[in-house]
């Protein structure tokens, strides 16, 4: 049975993992994000306590 011979399937799996780990990540990371990340305000507003209606 050819399915039980691991030699061709191991090389296919090895090349697939090399493709996923070496070729594809630089292509994905090369894209520029469309939105510039702006820093958030560092000043905190005063929090008011919550008034529960059933108390």
From TrEMBL:
This is ATP synthase complex subunit 8. One of its GO terms (biological process) is proton motive force-driven ATP synthesis. The keyword Transport applies. It comes from the Eukaryota. It comes from Nothobranchius foerschi. InterPro entries: ATP8_metazoa (IPR001421), ATPase_protein_8 (IPR050635). The keyword Translocase does not apply. It is found in: Mitochondrion membrane. Subunit 8, of the mitochondrial membrane ATP synthase complex (F(1)F(0) ATP synthase or Complex V) that produces ATP from ADP in the presence of a proton gradient across the membrane which is generated by electron transport complexes of the respiratory chain. ATP synthase complex consist of a soluble F(1) head domain - the catalytic core - and a membrane F(1) domain - the membrane proton channel. These two domains are linked by a central stalk rotating inside the F(1) region and a stationary peripheral stalk. It is a single-pass membrane protein. Its main location: mitochondrion. One of its GO terms (molecular function) is proton transmembrane transporter activity. Belongs to the ATPase protein 8 family. Component of the ATP synthase complex composed at least of ATP5F1A/subunit alpha, ATP5F1B/subunit beta, ATP5MC1/subunit c (homooctomer), MT-ATP6/subunit a, MT-ATP8/subunit 8, ATP5ME/subunit e, ATP5MF/subunit f, ATP5MG/subunit g, ATP5MK/subunit k, ATP5MJ/subunit j, ATP5F1C/subunit gamma, ATP5F1D/subunit delta, ATP5F1E/subunit epsilon, ATP5PF/subunit F6, ATP5PB/subunit b, ATP5PD/subunit d, ATP5PO/subunit OSCP. One of its GO terms (cellular component) is mitochondrial membrane. Residues 1-30 form the signal peptide. Keywords: ATP synthesis, CF(0), Hydrogen ion transport, Ion transport, Membrane, Mitochondrion, Signal, Transmembrane, Transmembrane helix, Transport. The gene is ATP8.
């Amino acid at each position: 049975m050819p399915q039980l011979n691991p030699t061709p399937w191991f090389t296919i799996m090895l090349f697939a993992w090399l493709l996923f780990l070496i070729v594809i990540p630089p292509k994905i990371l090369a894209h520029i994000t469309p939105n510039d990340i702006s820093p958030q305000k560092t000043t905190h507003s005063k929090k008011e306590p919550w008034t529960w209606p059933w108390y």
